[in-house]
Predict the structure.
Amino acid sequence: MTSVQVVALGGSLLRPEVMERHAWLEGMAAVVAEHVAAGGRLGLVIGGGQPAREAISLAQPLLDDVARLDELGIAATRLNATVVQQILAGAGIDVAAAIPIDVEHAAELLEQHAVVVMGGTVPGHTTDAVAIRLAVAVGAGSCIIATNVSHVHSADPATDPDAVARERMTLSELQEIVGPPEHVAAGPTAVIDPIGVQVAIDAGLPLRVLDGRRLQQLAACIAGEAFEGTAVEVG
């Protein structure tokens, strides 16, 4: 498989308070269409964002089971994925009609279609980890993590005024920042899921982190061009 890219699109990109999401969705469809027109293939893994957190918050007082709470988040990711899939289909893009529930099915569909859109898979695996696993399965050269921040920082910039944006780093340095590969609660988010980082380390897969609201940067990264963000290399 050639010219295949995998992008994790954070659910935060679909939140109205973050951006004008209808314009973003239209622009994102144009980015996908451009990649496909150039002969590329694309796997998109969509996060749950606010709908996932709201569902988990609703059930949490009555449900003390992380796996069951994760299932609520997974359902939200698949709803968001369906929204994106339908928009791409409406734009005339060759996108698989099915929303895969596992990486193996997604990889098979990418052999048949230019674009595959999916959400989460099983409890304990965030969409970051799913995207990284899909990138490994289809032989992508890296996995793009498009979220609502421009770079990986040395610390959380929301709480540490001395946090420094990093343009380049290694996977092991990233693991030191995000913490050990453990899943202990449903809902919380980090710039990249630590379990996903461990998957990338095990597979020797570089990551690219950027602000998905800036579609020109996303398009450049998908095309393999220079972009503003963090390039996370194997070592």
The first strand starts at residue 4 and ends at 9.
